[in-house]
Amino acid sequence: MLYLQGAEYGQTLRRLTLWVHNVLLPVYGREVTSTAPWCSRWWEHHEAVAQLHALWLAWGELTGPDGGMTGPGAWHRDFLGPVMTGLRDPQGPFAGCKPGGHRAKEVPPVDAKDPFGPRPGGA
């Protein structure tokens, strides 16, 4: 998902958003608290987009007709629980976000984007 661009990213994000808003949150959303935050603008958190996209893809594979009898159980155990726990952790990507209040996160600093790449001057 994070490697998609332009119209392809927009179309995929729209399909993901429809699934999150019409399937995931109505069934598994739970109440927002300080110990289980959620951001109403979750699509502005790249980590959340990446994790929710992976969750959605796994849901499509494991709960569809080819998922087998244990596919839905495996999705709940192996994907839903860990992803939602991580996203809603008080130190997770929604830390500082409150209902109706999005707070962008600062990216950790790095000294060089490519510290082992070619050096100026050909060294």
UniProtKB/TrEMBL annotation:
Composition-biased stretches (Basic and acidic residues): 103-116
- Region Disordered, as annotated, extends over 90-123
Listed Pfam families: DUF4913
For this entry, the protein name equals DUF4913 domain-containing protein
Look up and give the organism this protein is from.
Streptomyces mangrovisoli
